[in-house]
Amino acid sequence: MVVKKFNYYRFTMFILAVIIIIFVIVKYVNQKKYEESLEYKLLGLGYQLSEIEVLNDKLSSDEINTVMKMKYNEYIDDFIKEKYFIFDNLEKYLDYKKENKKTDNSKIVSIINTDANIEWTEEERQTDITKEELMLVNRIYSLGEYEPEDLTKVPVSYAYSGIKLSESILPHIEEMIGDAKEEGYKLIVSGGYRSFKEQERIYNGYVNSRGTREADLTAARPGHSEYQTGLCFDIDINTSGDKKESDDYKWLINNAKNYGFILRHTEDKEDLTLFSASSWKFRYVGVEAAQKMSDENLCFEEYYAYYVRG
Questions:
Q1: For the chain, domain boundaries
Q2: Rounded CA gap, 117 and 111, in Å?
Q3: What is the pLDDT of residue 85?
């Protein structure tokens, strides 16, 4: 019997051929998988790898899929990197940027988040009263003829006679005014709850004397007044001279947040609230929210959009 000599060369060639076939198949399969990947599809839309990295880092897979249905826009990546970016507002940011290319992206995010691009008459939304001290009431959000169930008179030791507020915030007001008094400062609540009908009378008075445009900057329309929540009030300073320059007022501005209060309308946020600044109007939002707004220099509309509405 003749034993054939084992052909190492043919065997080696066979193994090599098998390896090459496997390599080609694996490469083909991997390529097909890659072509189905988000990265491949985004590259095909015009995104750079650095931009894709941002998308993957900041967005969920569902949000990325939504972006993929949109045309490539060089500003998408920039907006996503903004601190207060809200994905549901992305297309609004882009639309606004298209018409206002010189406007800073951070500013656009603030404008869109706070609905500062919407006129009074374009849209009205119902205030979500279940948010309680964080309910938003402004030129867009309306209370209708809502009335708080816990209205109570503020003791005359802290307020002018007859003023009512939500009972829930009285302890915070009493604590703040009491602490101020201990340090030698004089604060007193000078205005509080207003009903829908009372605000209607006040607003109509402004319209009759100043016109609608000016009235809308200084007096809320009925149903749109925060005084109607029972959480908003005016503070007076018992001092002569310029009250805003008084030590009493400086103490109030520096410490109100520690008791859960914010100065509701400030000069630096008029372009977002679209309401004239007032040095006396304070609103209860809770200590955590008040301190957050102070630390990040946010008006309530900005805070609500990013931290509350979700």
A1: 38-113, 125-309
A2: 6
A3: 97
pLDDT 10s digits, 152-168: 999 999 999 999 999 99
Task: For tokens 């964080």, name the residue.
Answer: 134
Instruction: Give mean pLDDT, residues 79-85.
Output: 97
The amino acid sitting at 139 is R
Angle between helices 61-68 and 49-58 in degrees, nearest 10: 140
Q: Going along the chain, which residue ranges are E strands?
A: 125-126, 141-142, 151-153, 164-166, 187-191, 232-237, 261-263, 281-284
pTM: 0.87
pLDDT computed for residue 185 by the predictor: 94
Matching CATH number, 125-309, of 2.30.40.10, 1.10.3080.10, 3.30.1380.10, 3.40.50.300: 3.30.1380.10
Q: How far is CA 125 from CA 84, 91, 120, in A?
A: 22, 20, 11
Contact at 8 Å (CB) between 120 and 221? Answer: yes
Rounded Cα gap, residues 160 and 158, in angstroms: 7
The predicted pLDDT at position 29 comes to 58
